Amino acid sequence: MSEHNAHPPSGDSHDHYQGHHGEETRPGHSTLKGYMIGFVLSVVLTAIPFWLVMANVIEGSGLTALVILAFAAAQIFVHMVYFLHMSPQAEGGWNLLALIFTLILVFIALAGSIWVMYNLNVNMMPGVMSEPVLEMQSQ
């Protein structure tokens, strides 16, 4: 048997799972109060952008979109902290590293998709494609 699986010598009352009895008080685990804080923050972070759009508070649609994206990023953060219990201390930092890797992949996929769609839009516009033909016909 390996050392990890071996039983502790007699007299040693160390239990592998002994440190897990008070998990609700450890960072990364939540109580009802923590879940309620997360819920209230989520509702507020949803209601404010809804009100901004419905009341037409901000005139420019581009600025409104940026404000809504900022609220969305804040809500993602709230969900990760209060509901997914992600923190730099959780799982020895591996959760945070996996999150960073995922964000990089999502950014590459989104940026690449937008780049491809933009180039397709610019290069396949009917007005752009017919201009050289019209110039050749008028000569």
UniProtKB/TrEMBL annotation:
GO BP annotation list: aerobic electron transport chain; electron transport coupled proton transport
Region described as Disordered: spans on this chain: 1-25
Record bears the keyword Cell membrane: yes
The organism's place on the tree of life at top rank: Bacteria
UniProt keyword NADP present: no
Gene Ontology cellular component terms for the protein in this record: cytochrome o ubiquinol oxidase complex; plasma membrane
Keywords: Cell membrane, Electron transport, Membrane, Oxidoreductase, Transmembrane, Transmembrane helix, Transport
MF GO annotations: cytochrome bo3 ubiquinol oxidase activity; proton transmembrane transporter activity
Transmembrane segments: 35-58, 64-84, 96-118
Membrane topology: Multi-pass membrane protein
NCBIfam families, sorted: CyoD
Protein family (similarity comment): Belongs to the cytochrome c oxidase bacterial subunit 4 family.
Function: Cytochrome bo(3) ubiquinol terminal oxidase is the component of the aerobic respiratory chain of E.coli that predominates when cells are grown at high aeration. Has proton pump activity across the membrane in addition to electron transfer, pumping 2 protons/electron.
Protein name as annotated: Cytochrome bo(3) ubiquinol oxidase subunit 4
Organism encoding this protein: Marinobacter antarcticus
